[in-house]
Amino acid sequence: MTYLEPRQDVPPGGERELPSRADRTTPENPWPLRMLSENLHAYIARCAPTWVEGQIIELNRRARVTYVTLRDVDAEVSVPVTLFANETAHLDRPLETGMRVVAQLKPDFWAKTGRLSMLGRGIRPVGLGDLLERIERLRRALAEEGLFDAGRKLPLPLLPHRVGLVTGRGSDAEKDVVRNASLRWPAVRFEVREVPVQGAGAVRAVTRALQELDAMPEVDVIVIARGGGSFEDLLAFSDESLLRAVAAATTPVVSAIGHENDQPLLDWVADLRASTPTDAGKRIVPDVAEERAGVARARASLDRAVQLFLEREEAGLAAVRSRPALAQPEDMILLREEDVDRWRTRALAAVDSRTLRELDAVRHLRARVRALSPQETLQRGYAVVQDASGAVVTDAATVRAGDPLGVRLATGELGVRAESVSARRPGERAGPG
Predict the structure, then answer these.
(1) Which of 92, 283, 325, 361 has the maximum number of C-beta atoms within 10 A of its C-beta?
(2) Which carries the bigger pLDDT value, residue 76 or residue 274?
(3) Measured between alpha carbons, how far is 337 from 344 in angstroms, rounded to an integer?
(4) For the whole model, what pTM was predicted?
(5) Is 324 helix (H, G, I), strand (E, B) or coil?
(6) CATH pick for 26-126 out of 3.40.30.10, 1.10.10.10, 3.30.390.50, 2.40.50.140
(7) Could you tell me which CATH number the domain at 132-286 has?
(8) Of 308, 311, 307, residue with least CA distance to 319
């Protein structure tokens, strides 16, 4: 242990100069303890009184003073409050444990003992009308933001693989949900989170459980369930932070709070509202008996459809088979055979007739060709005269007397010489001499 030496510059019994501020104190020049208490008392006395809301968790009445402990409605934070008799005398009903109140608190520091306390003034219970008005204002604000719109709600899966359940520890709500869901679909599996569902810390606990289940990919739907209770008991399920967490969840959320008439704001934000935990257990999974009956009905309907189809096809086949083309198919072949024979006969007759006509035409053409051929002309006594070069002589002017000529007859040729040349044309009479 280290001991500080007394200051040598301060005479015994004399007064030393003390620091004016706490941050200027040193081990060599500290404050007296009374100075710290007086400064704290003066500093705290300047704090303005503050209106707060809380829940009474402890209550101790004395003759002239009432000591209460207020706890935050959502968090594990509490402070002691001192109420004098004149502050409680005007109340319509006495304070009780569990009551939610509003009070103006003024911090007070007792310098002699270093004890901090809160002096309460104007304390009054928070009435049902005040709570309803707050909830209504919050409901209108959330509705304007679209958190109640049907378009943003997620559909529940037809058959969830795993159901997340947020409920109280060992509560009847948990049993109702699990029992009814298991009766309808025995293979259903639950991921249960047991949390406080009323009082301080309920909102944070339910929100954490919801976010934890929402982050699990194997959880297909989340049920938030609680049994019935007073209006104050269900206030946690109208808290704005919880409602926004439900709206932000990517997994469908089912609200199953209280009884049929209970309707906290969670019912409006959730993707599905169940009137009771029992109703939630029935709505999150299908009924296996109903599904089997549906499968049986579907199979029967399918069997009937197939049977009707087969009967229609059989009737159609019978109608087709009864037609003459199929009943006596050889008749069709015989008819076609007769048609082929008839067409073949007609074709042969047409070919023969055309051949005869064409043969006659060829004979006629042959006779005409022969009649017009040079040989036929020679046969009638005409001759072809050619000069020495073999050219046909058609003009007497091209021949001179004494020129050798060739004369072609119908049969054979003659070699002659021109004795004379005349310019007489055919049909002219020869001149005298």
Answers:
(1) 283
(2) 274
(3) 10
(4) 0.53
(5) helix
(6) 2.40.50.140
(7) 3.40.50.261
(8) 311
